[in-house]
Design goal:
Layout lengths: L1 H26 L5 H12 L4 H8 L3 H9 L6 H11 L3 H6 L16
Amino acid sequence: RKFKYVARARETEERRATRTARHVKKWLPFIGIGKRLLLARVYAGFETAGALAAAIKHDRSSVNGWERGKILPREKAVLRLCSALNVNFDWLAYGRGPMHPDGAAPVIPL
């Protein structure tokens, strides 16, 4: 009897570890999207997350969560953000490639 319980517990642990590894592998590229989003928002001239939220027709709390890294935006939201901020999808979502579609360096407002 005790052996069945131990075997079942091990199987559960293995499944949990596999599920966690798949989850981490799936979301690993999104680490840092909040900082990239904040940087792009400032470069695009949106002073607040609320202004950006209004531009993409989304909730201000969602944009704040994305910037803080508490919530991951869905692909459709990332596409809207790219359009409003004039940045590459690959750069915003994964941190790869140039920030802007034309490859030009952004002008930092002083």
